[in-house]
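hey team, just a heads up i'm posting the complex here instead of the shared drive bc the drive is being weird again. everything in one block, sequence lines first with there labels, then the predicted structure for the whole assembly after. its two chains so it's a bit long, scroll down
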Amino acid sequence: MEYTSLESVGEFGLIERLVRSIPLPSRHVVKGPGDDCAVLEPNGSELLLVTTDALVERVHFDLTYCPLKYLGYKAAAVNFSDIYAMNGRPTALTLSLAVGARFGVEAVEEIFGGILTACKEYGADLVGGDVTSSRAGLMLSLTALGRVSRSEIVYRSGARPTDLICLTGDVGAACAGLRILEREKAVFKENPNVNPDVAEFAYVVERQLRPVAKKQALENIRRSGVKITSMIDVSDGVANETWHLAQASGCGAVVVQDKLPIDYQTIKVAEMFDESPVEWALYGGEDYELLFTVPAMDYEKIIAVPEVAVIGYMTEKISGVKLAMSDGSFADLKFLGFNHFVGKST
Amino acid sequence: MEYTSLESVGEFGLIERLVRSIPLPSRHVVKGPGDDCAVLEPNGSELLLVTTDALVERVHFDLTYCPLKYLGYKAAAVNFSDIYAMNGRPTALTLSLAVGARFGVEAVEEIFGGILTACKEYGADLVGGDVTSSRAGLMLSLTALGRVSRSEIVYRSGARPTDLICLTGDVGAACAGLRILEREKAVFKENPNVNPDVAEFAYVVERQLRPVAKKQALENIRRSGVKITSMIDVSDGVANETWHLAQASGCGAVVVQDKLPIDYQTIKVAEMFDESPVEWALYGGEDYELLFTVPAMDYEKIIAVPEVAVIGYMTEKISGVKLAMSDGSFADLKFLGFNHFVGKST
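-- predicted structure starts here --
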């Protein structure tokens, strides 16, 4: 890769280079980058959604194995995922990027390119931002805006007892990918001549490095005509997110262990590490699937939607949040949260 | 100060503590923190403004002398300043905070308290955010939303030749404050028993540590009935911002050196350091005053507005951007920009 130092182009020079690569914005953008604020045309009949999510080096990612382009894509996708979790559509994104002097202009352009790829894929405009130096690591903080009609907005709080708990895609894969990458990193440190071989686990590695926000799955659900009653995106594992839905909705919940959709590669990796793929599905995090509830009467309709599995059901609050085990018994489904301050689930 | 470790409360615990301290939101906030996104009621007749600005430790601030509460306030105020620079009103703010393990819960609460103080003062709701750990320094990235009516929005690009260049408040003070603080820091490092004495320079120190977004001045200008033709906030010094207005408007400009409003304390500090207060006014930065243009025919009206000075006028583009010196001669007013990647104006 070429290397042009950030000092040599300066902050304004860098921003000018980056802004030139932004495609023409949609009609709702009255003014993109280049003034004190971006100016957007609101849609008076729709609600405005706002969400912020940051990725911090050595906390959320490791540049040893995370390509910069993927990093930019992921930072944008995790924000768009929050917009989809309200049943909305992303419209705009702002970026705040802090980079150390060790990064060159080309590296920043890689990150930026990844963000633009995600913007294009999800239909949002990059409307503004801020690039600054950092004496330490790389940090990206993104804010996404979105829209949703009043009649279609879905909160975490709308689930009712007997509603079915549904999940898009499969879970635990991002965690499996992380294990593979961490292992390859350790091997590489011991012997830099060994080339990492992740091809066998390409799917789970990709799930970790380049998560997809579930735009298409959500469109499929909408087309089914089923009314989603509550929804959240799975960033901290199915168990924690089920807890969030249950608490916000004033319900209990049962997740059926055998119904958890887990990919074959995830299971294989878990076997290799002698760990439980179910644990990864429940607490692994970073899958960015959508966890949602629908009325029980819509069972036939929702299981007909591609990529959607029914994994449990909501109950009365007094029943608590449970895991239905393979042997027919019930266990408490623990809320562990995710503690970034210790760097692992606690 | 008490110290409760971040590890002990965890990310969810910390966010819960912080969210409890947020006052009840305005009516336009349909849903504040607690779901995947904040949900806002747009005002269909007004345009939506979005701006992002980050403060990074050891780049934008130094915790040796910057109280955490002021830091939070400043991070919010500099974003609101961008909203005012479009002639808008701030409505909402999201926060992304990365903190190292050396910070305790109480420190984060201090920062948060400063942000809430600013939100209250400027009439915006804190609607969402993200708190994460950082292996390195402290970083705050804030995104402000605002509104402005279509007929009142002011861009950088609306100035015309003969328009008067006006400025709120005084400039160079934040730079003077920084010099004092840096000096006291050096003294303290040599001899930790010497208590810093900044009382004599309280005004300039406050301008550096706790800049005020010019809400009141802008209201006064609006009340005068004068139509602002272009506007920008002064974050990188009057010279750079005049350049931005001139370039965006396709004009030249003349700034009259003797008309630059410089506080007596700023002059005194510049003398102490044997530096030029005019240089600080032109290139010092961080003053967060509003630089704007009005039609020449409104001269009488605009000079009657408290806190506003006329410091020059716009010219044809071919004339370039000039500084009218005390002796009647003209010099090129240089565009230096601000290069965060080398940490000083270049």
